[in-house]
Design a protein that fits this description.
4-stranded mixed sheet, alpha/beta, 5 helices
């Protein structure tokens, strides 16, 4: 939540606004069946055909300090765009890994999946599963704030790239 708010604030303070509008959405009900994102996709504030991408983030401040995971990067042009953006920002010192837990089916278990089902290219950033996942021991003190900040900056840069690109993200023909 704090990363989404900080990214939104960063866009709001840009002296030159991106070519495309951005919508920042915080939803609930993921663990109960992706209810919040399903409602948003079914009742969007703008026509769904105008939504060209979904960049989802959830749990981005845990695990390896220099690695974030982008689930679904192989499914749309958002993956190569994200890798190019990451290469353009070596100061972030982040490796963006593919899905490290394919047996968990995380692509279909997070809120970006409702956007993908609506044919909106989607990518999901997470630091992934850990020993405290969905347990009371998952306390704020366990968050690596430096990693969270660097990952949020990467997502700001990615969002800015997508919002200013001439061509919208696409799904491959397959």
């Amino acid at each position: 939540t704090s990363a989404v708010m900080e990214i939104a604030q960063a866009f709001a303070t840009l002296p030159v606004k991106p070519k495309r509008s951005l919508i920042f959405v915080l939803v609930s009900g993921e663990e109960k069946g992706l209810f919040g994102s399903a409602h948003f996709v079914k009742n969007p504030p703008v026509p769904a055909k105008q939504m060209i991408a979904n960049i989802n983030l959830d749990m981005i401040g845990r695990n390896s300090p220099d690695t974030t995971v982008a689930i679904g990067q192989e499914y749309s042009s958002l993956g190569p765009t994200m890798q190019a953006v990451n290469q353009a920002h070596p100061e972030l010192k982040l490796t963006v890994a593919p899905d490290l837990w394919p047996d968990e089916n995380l692509f279909v278990r997070s809120d970006h999946f409702n956007f993908a089902k609506a044919a909106i290219p989607a990518i999901f950033f997470t630091s992934g599963l850990h020993a405290d996942y969905h347990k009371p021991s998952d306390e704020p003190e366990t968050i690596d704030n430096d990693k969270l900040v660097r990952t949020a900056r990467l997502l700001f840069y990615l969002g800015n790239e997508v919002a200013n690109a001439i061509v919208a993200p696409t799904w491959p023909e397959a």
